[in-house]
Fold this protein.
Amino acid sequence: MRISDPNIVARLAELHVELQPSAALAGLTSLGIGGTTDLLRIKNHERIPDLLNLLDANHIPHKFLGGGSNLLVGDGELPWVILQLVCPDPDVVFEGNFAHVDAAADLGRTITFCAKNDLGGMEGLIGVPGTVGGALRMNAGAYGMQIGSYVREVKLYRAATRKIEILRGHQISFEYRHTSFAPDDMMLSVKLELPSKLFKDILQGIRICNEKRRSSQPLGQKSAGCIFKNPPGASAGRMIDELGLKGLSVGDARVSDRHANFFVNAGRASARDMLALIADVRERVHKTYGVELENEVVVWNA
Ligand code: EPU
């Protein structure tokens, strides 16, 4: 989708929004898949309500992009523009055991920065790509922890009220890979309360998690992490593996040889290829196990 009306372009500049015409989503997602559309980079949170009013008044559909690490975007010219926050400097500010973190901050860098300030708790998430905002929206978790446990406050743009609001931790429900945020809410920043720990002890935890991840996940390859959620009491990866589906491909979309719940883009996979592979694996698992696997990856298909 293209924004070409000079009045809208001028207004975007007034709202401190940088317009990047015809951005390739393949370059903005960890899967390396996705078509093109205009990208609107937001430099000032406070102007978001005005920006959304401008887009709605001009019937311009939009989607919010975080770090693009848990996302499968459709091919070709996309029918919506993409909004993304520009990361401020600094993106983490400490106040005792609280860390105030911008949603656009890189998750891994934030965990390490907190560690250097003797604040731990999030070691399990080291190696999870993406932004803090994305981790928050999905309640990212690994190795027995989840980010939701540390959330005390979230500042967000709420599409329902068209306002920037602050929610307290107890007003948000964090479940397995699910939160009570609405799909069109936009995370802006979060206040985390983290336990005090010595840097060297946190580092030790980080090393252990890194090693576990390196030995079981295809880290160097283009992927969106796990494709399916684990069904209650079972492991999607183990079921797919037991069916002998590692290496199964549609075009360049391929079930990883290392972890069967990771599907990798082994070259120039299209969204069409990846969606066909997802559908095929889901059907095979359903046939054998009678379980309907639910996507963990977020799909934006036109
Ligand atoms: N397994 C296999 N074959 C495989 C993959 C796994 O037999 O190809 C077996 C493992 O041997 C293990 C069991 O399945 O006995 C579980 O595997 P693993 O420990 O790798 O955990 P997972 O349930 O597959 C979950 C999260 C990961 C997270 C890890 C570590 C989901 C969908 N996945 O994976 O998160 O990194 O635990 O805590 O909840 C993600 O969300 O994108 C993600 C990768």
Summary: Residues 142-143, 216, 225-226, 229-230, 235, 237-238, 241, 259-261, 296 surround EPU (CB under 6 Å). The chain has seven helices and 19 strands. The first strand starts at residue 17 and ends at 24. The mean pLDDT is 97.
